[in-house]
Amino acid sequence: MILRQIAIAAVLVVAVAGEVAPEPWRRRAHVLDDYVQVSRIDVRRDGVTIDLELTPGIEIAQPLFFQINTDRDGKISDREARAYAKQVIDDLSLSVDDRPLALTLAQSSYPSFDELRSGAGTIRLRLSSTADLSRSGTHQLFYRNRHRLDRGIYAVNALVPASPEIRIAGQHRDQLQREIRIDVLIGGR
Amino acid sequence: MRLQRRRLILVVIVLVMLSVSPRAQKPAASSSSVAKAVAAANAFLATLSDAQRAKARLDFNEKTRVNWSNLPTGSTLQSGATERNGIKLGDLNAAQQEAALALVAAPLSASGFKKVMHIVAADQVLEDRANRPAGSRIRFGRSEYYVAILGAPSTSSPWMIQFGGHHLAINVTVTGGTNVLTPSHTGTQPATFTLDGQTIRPLGNENDKAFALVNSLDETLRKQAVLGYDVRTTVLGPGLDGKTIQPEGARVSGFSADQKAKLVDLVGEWIGILSDETAAAKLADVKANLGETWFAWSGATTNGSSAYFRVQGPTVLIEYAPQGSTDHIHTFYRDPTNDYGVKAGR
Questions:
Q1: Residues of B with Cβ-Cβ distance to A26 under 8 angstroms
Q2: Which of A28, A36, A121 lies at the smallest CB-CB distance from B130?
Q3: Which of A56, A135, B111, B177 is deepest in the core (most CB within 10 A)?
Q4: What's the rounded mean pLDDT across residues B282-308?
Q5: Is there a contact between A159 and B127 if contact means CB atoms under 8 Å apart?
Q6: B131: phi > 0 → left, psi -120 to 50 → alpha, else beta; which?
Q7: Among partner residues A57, A158, A173, which is closest to B245 by beta-carbon distance?
């Protein structure tokens, strides 16, 4: 078992050594050193769901993969996936009407090492939070993403709510879309 | 008798009014392009072996129709699949490829098919410049574009043509009388290249018309249109069917007639990928809904700059986003009311 892990780690090290300067075809195909993070926020009367897509550029993809794949077996296990999701969640803030809300991981998917290396791999996290938005009137939702501020390219949008009783009355973002304040109108129009 | 005639006239007037709804005008029948598509599909299938046909033709359902992407071959697609639907050009001989591309061309306009093939050519340029190792799992280039038929080609029941690869997803739902292009993806890298001595810009019109539009706006409208934050990627790409975002930017209702015409002309770069008669009906629908359409921009407004824009109305959602540079563009085209031709009841 240990020998197998060493062998796999050795293969990964060799692969990475060849990737310090990524081949030209990868360099041309996709963004190099950005970590694109797209958040889509879905507001319901009983809570908030955030779909977060994280796409690392090829120059940061390998180190990121090793950061996640802590046992160096070349595959991201469920345990490793949950651990990384927790790191991401720890960098997020969500509140409704100034009351902080806890985000929990509902679903996740991770690309393979090869896909990440190519710049075509996206980590997908679905995060959920319970919130009481039953009161009619205006509510304010605040979301902030501080994950990998060194490399992050951010986008955040509120989805049009499925319920006709909920209306997004305004979205206010900072310049870099790291945070958003959403005015939510429940009930009246 | 006179009262009955008045009532009859009134009923006729009401029926005529109800048949013309501004929100979603039913596209005019384009039976010639439908029949052409059916003939081309059957001709293509006839060129294939049984094994190839089994790959090329799949059922048309909620699982198969969403299997499209901007990503290159070898990636796990947003649908979760590891391969696109259908059979790739690289697995077809010359005659089969010709039949496949005739199928792709059948529901499209001449300019639309040209745009599609220029995007394919751009990806071949990307592949040729890259000197990619032969064994690489991630692959680019013309041979990695897939053609698929979902459902049974028919002039009366819905079925679908898919043609896609890196930076391209042409999804045409043929719904027995009209064709629906949404959702679709057009992208390119490189954005400019030379082909047979000509300079090709697969998305050059989209870029130039958008800059012309934003620069035609006066200061008030431009301030409304230009978002106060950086947008550097698209929001509603593959895997996000049924979702929509809040409209932002400038309301087109405040545009002048010339500015509205510029916006419709810009949208026409996506809608006009389809045959002329289908596109005309769809553009009429967009025009009818301009009062509820928004135009948003992020970035500098000098042509040549890296800028994002979005057109969002009741029956159209278009995003255009450079991916880190003006040499690499992604666009997506959706109709929140009729992606995959769902109005036909599929």
A1: 130, 138
A2: A28
A3: A56
A4: 97
A5: no
A6: left
A7: A158
Q: Shortest CA distance to A101 belongs to which of A134, A132, A126, A125?
A: A132
Please give the residue of chain A at the shortest CA–CA distance from B136: A114
- DSSP letter at B141 equals S
Span B164-185, pLDDT tens digits:
999 999 999 998 778 999 999 9
Name the nearest CA neighbour of A26 among A15, A12, A37, A13: A15
Task: List Cα–Cα distances, A186 to A134, B106, B297, in angstroms.
Answer: 8, 48, 29
Q: Tell if the CB–CB gap between B131 and A29 is shorter than 8 Å.
A: no
What residue type is A37 in one-letter code?
A: Q
Measure CB to CB from residue B243 to each of A26, A40, A114 and give the nearest one.
A40
Q: Does the structure show a pLDDT above 60 at B97? A: yes
Q: Does residue B277 have a pLDDT over 50?
A: yes
pLDDT bracket for residue A3 (50, 70, 90): low
Nearest Cα of chain A lies from the Cα of B103 at a distance, in angstroms, of: 29
Q: Which residue matches tokens 């340029």?
A: B125
Average pLDDT value for chain A: 87
Residues in chain B: 346
Six token digits for residue B159: 């079925």
How far apart (Å, rounded) are the C-alpha atoms in residues B103 and B96?
Answer: 11
CB distance from A32 to chain B under 8 Å? yes
Query: b/e map of B226-241 (b: 16 or more CB within 10 Å)?
Result: bbebbbbbbbbbbbbb
Residue B255, CA distances (Å) to A2, A102, B267, B293 in order? 68, 44, 15, 11
Asked if A9 reaches chain B (Cβ–Cβ under 8 Å), the answer is: no
Alpha carbon distances (Å) from A13 to A6, A18, A111, B45, B274: 10, 9, 19, 47, 49
The model's pTM: 0.88
- Give me B123's structure tokens: 């990806």
Do B309 and B298 contact (CB within 8 A), yes or no?
Answer: yes
Where would I find the H helices in chain A? Answer: 2-17, 24-29, 58-68, 78-90, 113-118
Q: Crossing angle of helices B257-271/B204-216, nearest 10°?
A: 160
pLDDT band for B135, please (50, 70, 90 cuts): confident
Q: From CA B149, how far away is CA B284, in angstroms rounded?
A: 29
Q: How many CA atoms lie within 13 A of B238 on its CB side?
A: 28
The tokens for B342 are: 């769902």
